[in-house]
Amino acid sequence: MKYLTLAVGLGLSAVAVLVVPGSGATASMNAATVVDRPHPVASKYLKQRPAWTKCGDEELRTYCAKITVPRDWANQYAGNDLQIAVSKVAPAKGKPTRVVFGNPGGPGGAGLGMAPYLASQAPLAKDFLAVGFDPRGTGGSSNVSCDGAPGYTMDARDRDPGTRRLITEASELTQPYCDSQSRGLMPYITTAQTVQDMDLIRQLLGFDKVDYVGYSGGTWLGAYYQTYFPEHVGRFVLDSNTDFTGTWLDTFSGQPQSFERRFREDFAPWAAKYDADLHLGSSPGAVIRLYERLRRALKAAPATEEFLDGAVKITYDENTLDLMITGDLYSKLDFHSLASDLRFLTDLSAAQAKGGPRAAQRQVDALPAARQQQLVRRAHRAPIGLRMAGEVDSEGATFAAITCNDTPWPQGSEYGEQLAARLGPHYPLVGWTMNENPCFSWKRPNLTMPTPTGKGLPTTLMVQSVHDPATNYGLAVAAHERYAGSRLLTVTGEGDHGVYGGVNKCADRIVNTFLTTGVAPAADVSCQGEGIPAPGPEVPGMDAVEGAPLQKIAGFTKAVSGYLR
Q1: In the predicted model, what is the mean pLDDT of the chain?
Q2: pTM of the model
């Protein structure tokens, strides 16, 4: 499916995008049980004693374990238990007085790195036990897969009936793959099941209440945990918010406008401001026109090039270009990388048009080895749902399961076609892709979840930047207005997806005060954005993301994963 994921930097990726296969209706789907309330925990799960083992380097102080959970919380004696990978970091001295859970979003993102990431926040280091976990379906937990399911390689802007039929067929053909590759687990990969996994972790750790930091799709998970287990809710921070008071369709339908806004109102003016260095156009309009010309050129004549003395082959076409742009809009620290790659592709396409494929290859061969390595890394970033050869696709499969299972979607291709036709002309960067979505062909399990309302809960602190591309600010405001007792911290003049932990000092102070003291703002509050940095003296690499929280979390996750068997 070509709907954009909510969190960037998950797994091995510093980008997050697209192409997620779906699951079909089978006997296992029909057997799934309604999970609309928490279920008492069977004693066999409460009696388990996790075997904690050191994971990652010594300085991370991280310990990991696997806990056993039922496949279906409504049928705890049915067998077929699952394993959930959990991480924790305790204070360097003394015992923790509170516990803070974290989730990086996706949904479907592996989250073991949340423990060392939260522990690296100085205000939390003294008193908190920091906890992360890989949600069921992904990472080091029991996995699901959609291996072999077709993706969307066609151009979403092509409205030819034949292309549209291919899109519909690709959605429908994904049904058997997920279920057959996932051993019947797909119906049980839902938020309703995951929040009960979370609460078992809480009980095994011995805490009555949990604090929480959830980013992006993790805001959905956090709101549902609050709804299912209000008596165990402490201080909850929901950062870069889905519309968790609505449906997944509501959240994804808001993406075309927000991605377009980020591209046209943040990136294009920034690139034009530094045209003397970036050479993409002296006005925002010129930058947009360069993109459209380049897209047409790469569609007409894709450029297939060999890098690193023929060790790697990369094809650049119109879809590659769109994925590159949308992925780099999540963090302002990726703007320079995006600008450099746009310039490279513009020159590459021009060389091919003038001198043919050999001329384009000479352009690549002339690049320094370090720049070629950088381009290879960026081309092989693993977006959720777009699996590279040899990589496990559990994050993408979990993303598909949660977003398609949790809440209803209109069935059939008609709604998606209408949505694309309505949004595409106004928001072409993403809008035309709205019909590339297996959820429109997805038969859900027998699942009903209560709508989060916030009633009876302690204050929830919501954090949102106004130009967030993946979670639309307007929908975050709407969720805030419907979520009783919430406070909204708005970062103005800013568009990063994932704020807490290095994007904005003002926002960090407010969040840290809330987490450490429980004192929330008396009313909604705003912080001024700190601006987009000027292009640096060197060509940036995808590792130059020191201040992007979700990308740092991904780095921590990579560092502490793989130690459990």
Answers
A1: 90
A2: 0.93
